[in-house]
Amino acid sequence: MMRDKRAVSAIVTTVIILALALIAVGVVWAVIKGVIDERGESADINARCLDAGVEIDSFRACNVAGECSVTIKNVGARTVDGVRVALGGAVNDTEELESLASGDVTFTVTADQATKEVTASAYFMADDEVTKIVCPNPVTQKVPATAA
Fold it and tell me: Pick from 33, 59, 60, 142: most CB atoms within 10 A?
């Protein structure tokens, strides 16, 4: 009778050890999967940004009413979801243009008459379609010295 109890005890111990091993493998897998998924999305965005290219075709100084004319051109091989344009380096003066496929778009924005610089960056929408991921390669152009 004593022999049977020891045999059951060994089986229970083996089952518990196997269960703990499976739990440990599950935890490690969850951590590794999270890291892989995060790196994969980052690599996808970087690949998109390599194929994207925006250029400031022209930038005219702001008039007395604060209206500035900016022409942005898509020179990349990919349609960008939008272009973030900052006037004078101020974040709050950002205009966002939706979907720039090819060619160029001219628009007028309102800014301080003293604005002498415009910066443009392509951006893509993240998978959640809410978050805008701005490419890390902005282009900047200053008002030509001869402009009034």
Answer: 59
pLDDT per residue as tens digits for the range 46-105 = 777 777 778 888 777 777 777 777 788 888 777 788 788 777 665 444 556 666 655 667
Find how far residue 53's CA is from the centre of its chain.
14
From CA 97, how far away is CA 80, in angstroms rounded? 10
Cα 111–chain centre separation: 26
Domain ranges in the chain are 1-51, 53-142
pLDDT tens digits for range 21-38: 999 999 999 988 877 776
What is the CATH topology of the domain spanning 53-142? Immunoglobulin-like (2.60.40)
